[in-house]
Input
Amino acid sequence: MPDRKVILDAVTLACRAPSLHNSQPWRWIADGALHLFADRTRLVPATDSSGREMILSCGAVLDHLRVAIAAAGWDTTIARFPDPTQPDHVAAVEFDPLPIVGDTQRARADAIHRRRTDRLPFAAPRGWATLESTLRGLVDGEVVMLDVVPDDARPQLADASRLTESLRRQDPTYQSELRWWTSPFELDQGVPPTSRVSASEASRVDVARAFPTTGYGERRAQTGPDRSKIIVLSTGADTSLEVLPCGEALSTVWLECTICRHGHVHAHPSDGDHAEPKRHPPTHPTARSPAALDTGGHHTSRRRTTTSPHTPTTRDRGSAVPQVASPLPAAPHQLRVRPATNVKAATQLDTVPQRFRY
Output
């Protein structure tokens, strides 16, 4: 098992993973292994009533953890949903030392630092054929299917996007929730004004989730309408067992796009040229079917990719602090010590007060 500092550093880096509205719906417990749990106190219910986006986000942070700890010299063995009686126990991670840390591992961990969310219009990606081939090679097609939306099908997807947003504008619960998560008063979660776009900028992106606009800027005016490539990741079923690896595949796609200095997969910024998710599979039942492409799977996520730049969104430090299930010494404000002897007991003791959301 890596020492406490290695674990803490890796978890902190992993928690740079994107999540729906930057809600960071996860928590970690260490007890000899490292355990990832979905945190339902951070569920975004009007947007994600099924919890699918929550599990998708957990998949992304799990893959980020694998990448971060590999750069520190440790391999991972991951048991996904190891306890059928605890559906929120997403994964148990065990570690073995790697014989060597190569440039590839370091580059992927560095990509976590550089990846950003970018909702501005993108130029057409450079070297797309090569990147697409690389991405297909990285995604296990037996578990997650990767498709690229053809340019001639994009208007259909844009129509579905507009239909979804028109339905959401009439949903007061959704709108109230969206205003909460885009409030300028939260500094460590939610979508800050610096990660949003003006009305003029938003009008040049045809496939996107609508957020409250900010300012009257016209960044990337020379880019014109969005010309990104849209990637669809889908699964054979729509259960947590399938959605989790789709989140892991999303992480792989984001980081590879960042390494290749491409922007992303559905709408977000970066420090030079990067990638992050724009959670936009329509969740309203009336809006889902028009968006479906003939890929034979459940469309768990769509992302767009190209090139971009931005400042990172902040993260809640609490979501990156693993709790300790055994009585190990811990520095104040680093590891919260719980005198439990097993994971089940630990989960009953580790409640952290959350801000009242509604």
